[in-house]
Amino acid sequence: MTTTRRGTAVQLLGPSTGGIRNHVTTLAAGLRDLGWSAPVLGPEGVLDGIGQLDGVVAVPAGMSPTGLLAARQAVRPWRFDDPVLHAHGLKAAWTLVGGRPSRPLVMTQHNVVLDQSAGRSADLQRRLEREVLKRVDRVIAPTPQLAAALAGTVREDRIRVVVPCFPRPVPTASRTEVRHRLGLSDDTPVVVSVTRLHPQKDLTTLVAAWSGVVARVPDAQLVVVGEGPARSEVEAAVAAAGLQGSVQLIGSRPRAADELAAADVAVLTSVWEAIPIVLAEALLLGVPVVSTDVGMASDLMGDGTGGRVVPVGDAEAVADGLVALLEDPERAAVGRAGQVRAEQVFDPDALVAGVAAVYEELA
Question: How many domains does one find in the chain?
């Protein structure tokens, strides 16, 4: 069957090590299946391990005027065939708003500016964020809650809610093989956290919670998958708590489906998320989760389906949730229920079609 040619939707992302890049590669592939040309642009190496860029655009990590100008110049050759321009995140959107001659511009608001992330430049970035949001044609919010938060800055008729799509996690090794690589047995109680080592992820709360877990489940092991600027801080917290024997920081993986699938429980302690994709991935793998109340956690698990939702920053509640699931004889059933719900919410075909519908409004 021949697919109707629908148009061009240029995808631009900035520096990314997490779920945004997985979303963009999945979205671009789905758009092509629907007949859209969907070139993906971004900093060199941003898709390493999961795909290839169609063009290199060095979207700056900071707000360097020189870097921003260079990125805008690198995008210019891709403004052919009257494309829709789709920016994923603030830095990418700020790159595209400069000098765009009548090209429709869509921005997905994957994150908000946090003091933990932006530091001293937080106020400047918030001003830039408000300015960008006013100048784009459509804003895609990953959740109704984020859409509501945007209402004071963006006209309601320009906001659309579409949950991000991402590739369904597929383990490449068995539970036993993964645990063997980690030096763990099949019957060891294992909790996995797939996360960037960054203040936004609040890993100091996770470490504090883990002290409470091993006090009640002495043979439990915590495996942290990820890298980031807070690594030394996390290592220091683990050492200060005397947890070196029960915590492994194994670094980043292109996709952590193997480690998640080998877990008894997954855990997320972030202070803020739009859509915590690792939460969705764990549920899709049938692994129950303890998550702070961020993003869609309450929507997915607020009634106990698939795991437990706990207050942000509450180490005792995180520990209680982890122990309860580790000791629950019906844990597998909890995971299966979460899997069913996640399959309904994160249907990639429906989510790609939702983004394509936004383009159709503008093209």
Answer: 2
